[in-house]
Amino acid sequence: MVSPKLTIAEILAAPLASSDAAFNTNTRNRHSQLVELINTHNHRYHVLDAPIIPDSDYDKLFRQLLDLEESVPQLATVDSPSQRVGATALDHFSSVTHKLAMLSLDNAFNDEELAAFDKRLKDRLTDELVNIEYFCEPKLDGVAVSITYIDGILHTAATRGDGSQGENITTNVKTINSVPLKLQGDNFPYRVEVRGEIYLPDAGFKKMNQAAQDRGEKTFVNPRNAAAGSLRQLDSKITATRPLMMSAYGVGYIEYSDQQGVLHAGPKGYLSDSHSKSLSQLAEWGFFINPEIKAVKGIDQAIEYCQALTNKRSSLTYEIDGVVIKVDSCALQQQLGFVSRAPRWAIAYKFPAEEASTTINAIEWQVGRTGALTPVAKLAPVFVGGVTVSNATLHNVDEITRLDVRPDDTVVIRRAGDVIPQVAKVIHDLRPSGSEPIVLPIHCPECGSDVSRVSGEAVIRCTAGQLCPAQLKEAIKHYVSRKAMDIEGFGDKIIDQLVDQKYVLSAVDLYSLSQSQLAGLDRLADKSAANLLAALDASKSTTLARFIYSLGVREVGQATAKNLANAFGSLELLIESVVAARDKNLSAIERLIEIDDIGPIVAQHIFSYFNNPRNLKLIEQLQSVGISWQDIPINQGQALALSGQTWVLTGKLISMSRDQVKEKLESLGAKVSGSVSRNTHCLIAGEAAGSKRTMAEALGITIIDEAAFIARFID
Ligand code: IVH
Fold it and tell me: What is the per-residue pLDDT for 268?
């Protein structure tokens, strides 16, 4: 009898009748419905990462399954999801002989060794191949496993052991949700060994260690040890609590049965004619396959993949220690065969070590664009993370204290992917006797001015502003940079000379540089001088957002500059809002905070910048040498430019009626109020405005007249 399809809600709503507590068709149907639903949603959650029902529904389904199997124990078959909670504890692991040995891989540590691998293959293969098709996969850092399915049902799971014999960890592996207990579909051989890696994602590792720490137990050093430890549990109920994952990367022994039911060993280890197709088949059966896998043509593309994954490594949510590169074609794999315990057709590219030790020659203080003094450790050069490192930032005073670092110390340098090198730790046992702690500077190392340190803050700052050549150089480098004014050709070396020669005392001086001044700089030909002048000229027409960004206001990055430009539409309005609030700065800061991305600290930096007459003068000078942009018409594109703002109208309007102005403001999202308060953003003052204007002035609120309103919002 075919059971009618029930929805989850129907299944959950229909309690098990007492008459069902027997092994009959009804209970069998209900059981298989539950199994099917649980398997589907388990696969969606753990393999596809695309759950569609709430966890609580899943838990209820699972509970029903357990209840049903408790009343009718015959239903608890070896492929029932109830197996995932663990079974009776073992007293030892039995051993399993792999029908096909579990091999290891040869290693390569750099591009040359990968190229040599490719050459070895080409020399060996009879076909003339220009670019071998390779398949690249992350080398997961976990425990290798071989899982045998017979008739599509998980039969045995074993560790690699010595490659030919491993331990039987079936009950433990069955608790791993990403391992199918039953293969999906019906297109599978009679017997198949699925090979893969069992690992613990970083989040699960952290959680597990935290729980161990809370219970006062020993923690694991890394996710791999934690995964291995979890699989070595004789009590699979403990394994069931560990959030292990299994990622399939290949197949081992395969046996097919023919139409008469006679068994045949398949072509050794091949499910199809290519490795990539075999992985697709594994995915169809319900296995999790790592999403970073990629088919490439030729070793150069494989090398690029290794580089890209090296850079991505630190952002992955699980540990990998390299890349496995495999020949994709099974026919070529077969031609290549094996050497001792490793296939000739695959290689493991191992990531360069991310940590290495070296000594600190000196600690220097570098002055940045905003005057912050950053301590930098000058190192005896060391090869780490694939490059030679001779500087490592120590960030700030707090970091120096945390590390307890001194010149001449031996330190561990860490460089993960393309992240800047860090001092990971100091090996205090190797500290030479008589070493002195770092003395914090009281003068700027570049200009000798006093430094300031706000109490409680970790940052020491040079107080000279752009009078300090180091700050000026950085400010100019920022000003000309691609995302700012984008003035081509002004490299760091040129800017250093321009500041050192005192040709440039502020950004505006760039525009009065002469051909002869530029041509006189070190290593700069006449032609390049002309190019620089042309680039300066070409950059004069810019955008408001770029211009704001190029000013280098503290903590105003590209995104914030853009938000400021869009919110105010013109630099005049931005400055007006700050200047009008000079005495009572409250409303200007509040206005700024309303803009996306701007918090009180950034708002304060913006306020201070535009409240400083020196900066306003610089802006004026830059505009007078021809820097220009188009203001942003606030009533276009920015549909709700004024949302959340309160505006007030006062005095007599000439060209528009009050209602028209009100309607326009409301269409831009503003609220129009009858009285001025601290919450008012802007007052539109018509002729003969009286007390509201006085009030707005007293509160430092932006005041514009009717003409300004029309220019900004109507024209
Ligand atoms: S293929 C014959 N693919 O690396 C090829 N191995 O020495 C056998 N590993 O312990 C392995 N990720 O468990 C392959 N994507 C991957 C892998 C991978 C990790 C482990 C494997 C074994 C070691 C190979």
Answer: 56
Nearest Cα residue to atom 18 of ligand 1 = 139
Q: What is the pTM of this model?
A: 0.62
Residue 433 has pLDDT above 80, yes or no: yes
Q: Which residue has the tokens 């003409």?
A: 707
240-249, 394-403, 421-430, 679-688: the lowest-pLDDT one: 679-688
For the CA of 105, the nearest atom of ligand 1: 7
| CATH 3.30.470.30, the chain: domain bounds | 133-350
- Domain 465-538 classified CATH 1.10.150.20? yes
CATH architecture for residues 355-430: Beta Barrel (2.40)
59-68, 633-642, 704-713: which has the minimum mean pLDDT?
A: 633-642
Q: Determine the pLDDT at residue 2.
A: 38
Residue that has been written with the tokens 């991310």 in this structure: 354
CA 357 to ligand 1 centroid distance, Å: 29
Does the Cβ of 139 fall within 6 Å of ligand 1? yes
CA–CA distance, 206 with 200 (Å, rounded to integer)? 10
CATH of segment(s) 544-624 = 1.10.150.20
| Residue 249 beta carbon below 6 angstroms from any ligand 1 atom | yes
pLDDT of residue 638: 47
The atom of ligand 1 lying closest to the CA of 196 is 13
* Fold of the domain spanning 636-713: Rossmann fold (3.40.50)
Whether residue 133 has its Cβ less than 6 Å from ligand 1: no
Instruction: Give yes or no for residue 346 CB within 6 A of ligand 1.
Output: yes
Rounded to whole angstroms, how far apart are CA atoms 167 and 144? 11
Residue 14 has pLDDT above 60, yes or no: yes
- Residue 103 near ligand 1, beta carbon < 6 Å: yes
Residue 215: which region, alpha, beta or left (left: phi > 0; alpha: psi -120 to 50)? alpha
Distance CA 431, CA 441 (A): 23
Lay out the sheet containing 245-257: strands in order across.
153-159, 143-150, 191-199, 245-257, 263-265
pLDDT level of residue 221 (50, 70, 90 thresholds): confident
> In angstroms, what is the span from residue 289 Cα to ligand 1's centroid?
13
Protein residue whose Cα sits closest to atom 4 of ligand 1: 139
144 pocket-lining for ligand 1 (C-beta < 6 Å)? yes
**What pLDDT score was predicted for residue 178?**
97
Total length of the chain: 715
d(CA 498, CA 262): 86
Residue range(s) occupied by CATH 2.40.50.140 in the chain: 355-430
Q: Are 200 and 211 within 8 A, CB to CB?
A: no
| Ligand 1 pocket mutation pick from 137, 324, 345 by most atoms within 8 angstroms of CB | 324
Residue 446: CB within 6 Å of ligand 1? Answer: no
Q: What is the pLDDT of residue 20?
A: 60
User: Which pLDDT value is given to residue 637?
Assistant: 42
- Report the atom number in ligand 1 closest to the C-alpha of 290: 15
CATH number of 133-350: 3.30.470.30
Q: Is residue 119 among the annotated active site residues?
A: no
Q: Given this structure, which CATH class describes domain 8-76?
A: mainly alpha
> Which among 5, 99, 119, 139 is annotated as catalytic?
139
CB of 114 shorter than 6 A to ligand 1: no
**DSSP alpha helix (H) spans, 194-346:** 202-214, 223-231, 236-240, 275-285, 298-312, 330-336
